[in-house]
Recover the amino acids of this structure.
């Protein structure tokens, strides 16, 4: 049974100004890749993106401290003349080597910081979620997303994160810059404040450095009016509590 044939999902985690060295970013990346490998078989291998599938498969990303530092350093943002722009941090992107429904991508930007106290630069980790429940990937559930958010929180310490249904996203207006986007699951760092009382179908799960809000245990779909109603109620409650204020990094929308 293909549980996600009508929709696709991704997780985006975001945090604001955080100046970090290539070594620090590489350490976070190593923990993230190792944890992802244990989370789902679809995430056991990653390859650097290239101009062709054949070329990409020659460049597997290994969880090797020295190799990851070199990889991160190679992703330093540069200007038109080739000069480095340290405040924009590092950017890397990967592919899991699969095709069709099993294909997944990941992009990371870390170590970015603003040179002015009045500005911020978004750092982010974005990864596709498995789209199959009958092959080598697990069927995604609310419980699985809590575990994924726990891993994200431990590895990247984001201000917030969201597991987004692309179909639902297309029905919604783009949030203001700096405002979290409520998804099937939404993680809030404890830095953003406490979670309000939620409607009966939704639930919140406290983690070490934040809380995950889950709309439904089953896969969230735009064809289920109950799901849409819960999403609307949760979003309104979070907005009243100030958790959707436009402070911190805004979402980077990913379209299929």
């Amino acid at each position: 049974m293909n549980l996600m044939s009508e929709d696709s999902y991704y997780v985006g985690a975001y945090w604001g100004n955080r100046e970090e060295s290539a070594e620090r970013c590489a350490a976070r990346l190593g923990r993230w890749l190792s944890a992802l490998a244990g989370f789902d078989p679809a995430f056991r291998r990653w390859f650097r993106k290239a101009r062709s599938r054949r070329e990409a498969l020659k460049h597997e990303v290994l969880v090797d401290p020295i190799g990851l530092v070199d990889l991160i350093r190679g992703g330093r943002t540069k200007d038109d003349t080739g000069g480095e722009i340290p405040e924009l941090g590092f950017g890397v992107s990967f592919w899991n080597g699969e095709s069709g429904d099993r294909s997944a991508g990941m992009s990371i930007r870390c170590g970015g910081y603003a040179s002015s106290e009045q500005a911020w630069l978004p750092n982010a980790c974005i990864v596709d979620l498995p789209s199959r429940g009958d092959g080598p990937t697990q069927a995604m559930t609310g419980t699985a997303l809590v575990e994924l958010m726990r891993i994200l929180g431990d590895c990247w310490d984001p201000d917030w994160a969201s597991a987004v249904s692309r179909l639902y996203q297309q029905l919604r207006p783009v949030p203001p810059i700096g405002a979290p986007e409520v998804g099937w699951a939404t993680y809030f760092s404890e830095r953003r404040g406490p979670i309000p009382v939620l409607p009966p179908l939704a639930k919140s799960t406290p983690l070490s450095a934040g809380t995950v809000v889950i709309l439904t245990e089953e896969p969230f779909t735009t064809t289920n009016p109950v799901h849409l109603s819960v999403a609307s109620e949760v979003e309104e409650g979070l907005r009243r509590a100030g958790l959707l204020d436009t402070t911190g990094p805004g979402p980077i929308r990913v379209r299929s």
Observations:
- Confidence is low (pLDDT under 50) at residues 1-5, 248-256.
- The first helix runs from residue 22 to 39.
- The radius of gyration is 18 Å.
